[in-house]
Write a structure and sequence with these properties.
The complex is a heterodimer of chains A (124) and B (107). By secondary structure, chain A is mostly beta strands. Chain A has no helices and eleven strands. In chain A, the strands form two sheets. In chain A, strands 2, 4, 5, 6, 9, 10 and 11 form a seven-stranded mixed β-sheet that branches. Chain A has a four-stranded antiparallel β-sheet with strand order 1-3-8-7, with no helix packed on it. Chain B has no helices and eleven strands. The chains are: A mainly beta (124), B mainly beta (107). At the A-B interface, strand 10 of A face strand 5 and strand 10 of B.
Chain lengths: 124, 107
């Protein structure tokens, strides 16, 4: 059974960098069959796609966040990570990691496995 | 980016009745649409992809239809565990975008 687990600080100061890691078990981040994404949800609001990474290191980011986002993968540790720089209160959200399947070599775009989410609050 | 609009914002339905949720895209997304269910404190759960294909383990009472810009999620006979928030999501164009959600509540 595939499991994804987010980890990282729950409190980040304004202007600093938010860093989260997603650990994957029961499925391989080094498999070419999947893409690995970050999605966030501000409290009481809807979902926002942040970006994805492929095992090869190829990435795609939401243009609204692109200047501040870096997603990386560590296949040896079965992990992928998110860094979001220069955070403000607007970045307070539950952050989810999620998996989508490859379709004809590309991201399918729909997410069949999610982590349980981790709340990150931006506050001084 | 493509804007996804869901209606209604809140839907009140009695157990055993049918629920119909709508999702509209600001431009055509072909059949590249997914539906998710989210319960309080939980991650979204994939219900439907390809506009009408049920994900693994999803009961047959959930069905999706539509293409282009208009989509519908139908729950044929509501069970107590179906009361939740439902999101549509398009994956035809980057960035992927989600609707704002429809809250399905017990009448």
């Amino acid at each position: 059974q595939v499991q994804l687990q987010e980890s990282g600080p729950g409190l980040v100061k304004p202007s600093e960098t938010l860093s989260l890691t997603c650990t994957v078990s029961g499925g391989s981040v080094s498999s070419g069959s999947y893409y690995w994404s970050w999605i966030r949800q501000p409290p009481g609001k809807g979902l926002e796609w942040i970006g994805y990474i492929y095992y090869s290191g190829s990435t795609n980011y939401n243009p609204s966040l692109k200047s501040r986002v870096t997603i990386s993968v560590d296949t040896s540790r079965a992990q992928f990570s998110l860094k979001l720089s220069s955070v403000t209160a607007a970045d307070t959200a539950v952050y989810y990691c999620a998996r989508d399947r490859t379709r004809s070599g590309y991201s399918s775009g729909w997410y069949d496995y999610w982590g349980q989410g981790t709340l990150v609050t931006v506050s001084s | 980016e493509i804007v996804m609009t869901q209606s209604p914002a809140t839907l009140s339905v009695s157990p055993g009745e049918r629920a119909t949720l709508s999702c509209r895209a600001s431009q055509s997304v072909s059949s590249n649409l997914a539906w998710y269910q989210q319960k309080p404190g939980q991650a979204p759960r994939l219900l439907i992809y390809g506009a009408s294909t049920r994900a693994t383990g999803i009961p047959a009472r959930f069905s999706g239809s539509g293409s282009g810009t208009e989509f519908t999620l139908t729950i044929s006979s509501l069970q107590s565990e179906d009361f939740a928030v439902y999101y549509c999501q398009q994956y035809n164009n980057w960035p992927i975008t989600f609707g704002q959600g429809t809250r399905l509540e017990i009448k």
